[in-house]
Amino acid sequence: MTTLEPEAGHHPRVPAAGHHRDVNGGWLRPAVFGAMDGLVSNVALMTGVVGGAVSNSTVVITGLAGLAAGACSMAAGEYTSVASQRELVQAEIEVERLELRRNPQGELAELAQLYASRGVDPDLAREVARQLSADPDRTLEVHAREELGVDPNDLPSPWVAAGSSFVCFAVGALLPLLPYLLGATSLLPALLLSMAGLFLCGAVVARVTARTWWYSGLRQLVLGGAAAGVTYLLGALIGGQVG
After folding, report:
1. 46: closest CA among 227, 242, 241?
2. What is the Cα–Cα distance from 150 to 93, expressed in whole angstroms?
3. CA nearest to 162, candidates 103, 83, 52, 91
4. Distance CA 238, CA 1 (A)
5. Residue 186 above 70 pLDDT?
6. What pTM did the predictor assign?
7. What is the Cα gyration radius of the chain?
8. Are 54 and 220 in contact (CB under 8 A)?
9. How far is residue 40 CA from its own chain's centroid?
10. pLDDT by residue (tens digit) across 17-49?
11. Measured distance between the N- and C-terminal CA atoms of the chain, rounded to whole angstroms
12. How far apart are CA 83 and CA 101, in angstroms?
């Protein structure tokens, strides 16, 4: 009969916490997705315009307008979203601060009950809660972490979110535009550079997922190519009707 017990002198290897992937994505995920968004939206926009049989100067103006409008929209949206979230969290933290002032014993009992519900011995849970509640600032931080799931000293900055979104979107949107700015007279160089960028962005995203780099890259390439194909057909159809 096979046993799962480790052999004498051998101990099962337990992965350290630092060996896990960053499931939150850190800075990498928003940066890559911002660039990918700019790339897909602008190459699709420019492809649709090319499908309408317009001049190269019109394609360039359209691409520049798409870059500026998209980057500003992304920045404004990220700023509003993060600022609203931050204000909501700060308001809840103030509610918790007032509760700690008005009813410190009740909050201490609530914290002890929380630890006990997680399997800590009730007496030990009360002692841990008592020690953690000795310092008012630390008490607020502990309650914010345990009850709200946030660190009051590490709230996201709306300005950082807006700035990073603006820059990343603009970089992505610039890729399909570069060949035209460097003198290209057809869509092909822009498409080739955009497809390479899409595959690279997808491959980088694989760093924060369980997928292989080639699968993630191909998936993004197919999705971006499909978006460009649809807009090209729409541009050709509408351009033909208008013309």
Report:
1. 227
2. 9
3. 83
4. 72
5. yes
6. 0.77
7. 27
8. no
9. 16
10. 445 554 444 456 677 888 999 999 999 999 999
11. 80
12. 27
